[in-house]
Amino acid sequence: MVQKSRRSSSRGSGQQRSTTVRVVAGVLALMMVGSLAFVVVGTAGSGGDDLATLPVPDDCPADDKSDAPRLAFTSRPSWCLSPGVSYTAVFDTTEGEIRVALDKARTPETVNNFVVLTRFGYYDATMLFRFDPSIDIIQGGAPTTNDWSDRGPGYTIPDEGGEYLATTSGQLLGPFTYQAGDLVMARSAGPDSSGAQFFFATGSRTSLLDAQGTYIVFGHADEAGTAVLQAMMGLYEVDETSQYGGGPSRDVVVRSVTIEAD
Fold first, then answer.
1. DSSP-assigned beta bridge partners for residue 130
2. Are 57 and 13 in contact (CB under 8 A)?
3. What is the pLDDT of residue 9?
4. pTM metric for this prediction
């Protein structure tokens, strides 16, 4: 990869940031709730703005996407966010623009992951491939296959944003609730299993996922963006030949995602 000069920035390595933003590995506590036993398997603190001033890691992408495209990685990203900076993701889609304020305070690792992938062009020219009106979600972030079987970026990221509880039956329960406009990481049933796929919450039925709470909410669309999402869901048609049971009446494409830093 061609080396590019970048302005010096107050950024820190993922291995060197404060332990307040590091997910605690392993079993931390055992507690009883009713007749169910829970084990706390993950916690997270506040955002990463207490980082020391350090040079930009060599593997952070250029802010202008000149390092793109890149779809495969050998490990999760280094810490590439700047302290004291807010980040907004701007989705340019075939159905309109969606602006999402990213929640670096509650979910710093997830936001860092999304920003890095975005600046590598990971989400550009991809489809929003799954529309599910039963839970009001629109899913995307699968550049290789444009469906939920996508191989992903080659790594997963840690759970964060609060406590994750494992019941004795093996079910994982998390701290999140969901409302229209939320930008949320998709995941499998196991802990620490998010990677790159995401979904948007478009209506009240997404609150049906509150009982699980494990899908990490890492941003929220503005009012205009939420209206675009709800109009997208209005394109849904039943299709018994589809693996999802239906989909939009026309392809919905994310032309590009860009990151604004303030």
1. 139
2. yes
3. 39
4. 0.80
